[in-house]
Design a protein that fits this description.
The chain has one domain (about 10-260). About 10% of the residues lie in helices and about 55% in strands. It has one helix and 15 strands. The chain has one helix spanning about 240-260; strands spanning about 10-15, 25-40, 50-55, 55-65, 70-80, 85-90, 95-100, 105-110, 115-125, 135, 140-155, 165-175, 180-190, 195-210, 215-230. The strands form two sheets. Strands 3, 4, 5, 9, 10, 12, 13 and 15 form an eight-stranded antiparallel sheet that branches. Strands 1-14-11-2-8-7-6 form a seven-stranded antiparallel sheet, with no helix packed on it. A hairpin with a 2-residue loop joins strand 6 (about 85-90) and strand 7. It starts with 11 loop residues before the first strand and ends with a helix.
Length: about 260
């Protein structure tokens, strides 16, 4: 399978307002008008393409308190076609995530400081399970997922520790023949003062089965947002969720190759 990668990053600096500014981070991400298109990869074989979505949806929201990463979290799961929503609030930090017929959404905000929440994450998932694929695809069948995305991130700094925030739409798929990866992202770094990032456009990715038999397609589609106040002591990457998704791709691909063997 052809490996594809797409990254969109838009950023513009905000002029610092007169006087001290409130240290804050916030971000939102949305994927709306989501469409699933069945694609016949061998239109002349006389066999109709078919696909079955077999996994569920999940919305997760988490707010962490400074200085430790103990947090409060809400997770809501539902079968595909049913809504899921999660939201939490703690010491000036909020996070939310939701899935519905109108789209997938995530976001949050934080005002870090003494006793304040210094980090948040929210993400809405369509994903395969531990033993259940995302799709079952008939022979020579593809499923193309498209939608309209909007990602926004803001980081403001008042001379304290730098702020980071970001929002993304991230999709990956793995079959016996390889994997595909698509993502768009906006990120904002307040190290040098207030900053803002925003992008909109069309997100598209394809799950393809080029085999003459039914296969399971593993993977997921995630809409997420995060923000944090950077500690003077280096912490794990803010993009841990995205890295975890890539790790899943590798594990699934190895498992599929082992199954093929």
């Amino acid at each position: 399978m052809r490996r594809r990668r797409r990254m969109v990053l838009a950023a513009a600096a905000l002029a610092a307002a007169a006087g001290p500014a409130l240290a804050a981070v916030n971000s939102t991400a949305a994927l709306t008008n989501i469409r699933f298109e069945l694609v016949d990869l061998a239109p002349d074989d006389g066999v109709d393409p078919w696909a079955q979505y077999v996994s569920g949806v999940r919305a997760t929201a988490k707010v962490y308190g400074a200085p430790f990463c103990w947090g409060i979290c809400m997770i809501d799961g539902a079968p595909i076609g049913e809504p899921a929503a999660a939201s939490v609030s703690k010491d000036g930090g909020t996070a939310f995530a939701a899935y519905s017929v109108t789209g997938m959404f995530a976001g949050g905000s934080a005002t870090p400081g003494d006793g304040m929440a210094g980090r948040y994450t929210g993400h809405s998932w369509l994903k395969s399970g531990s033993s259940t694929p995302l799709f079952r695809l008939g022979a020579y069948t593809g499923v193309r997922i498209t939608g309209d995305y909007s990602v926004t991130a803001t980081a403001m700094n008042a001379g304290g520790p730098p702020e980071l925030s970001g929002a993304y739409v991230f999709g990956y798929g793995a079959l016996a023949g390889g994997y595909t990866l698509e993502y768009v992202r906006a990120s904002s770094d307040g190290s040098d003062g207030p900053s803002f990032a925003h992008d909109t456009g069309t997100f598209s990715m394809m799950f393809s089965n080029d085999k003459a038999r039914t296969v399971g397609a593993w993977g997921g589609l995630q809409v997420g947002a995060f923000g944090r106040q950077v500690s003077p002591i280096p912490e794990p990457s803010t993009y841990a969720l995205m890295a975890a998704g890539l790790g899943v791709v590798g594990v699934v691909a190895r498992r599929r190759r082992a199954d093929m063997g």
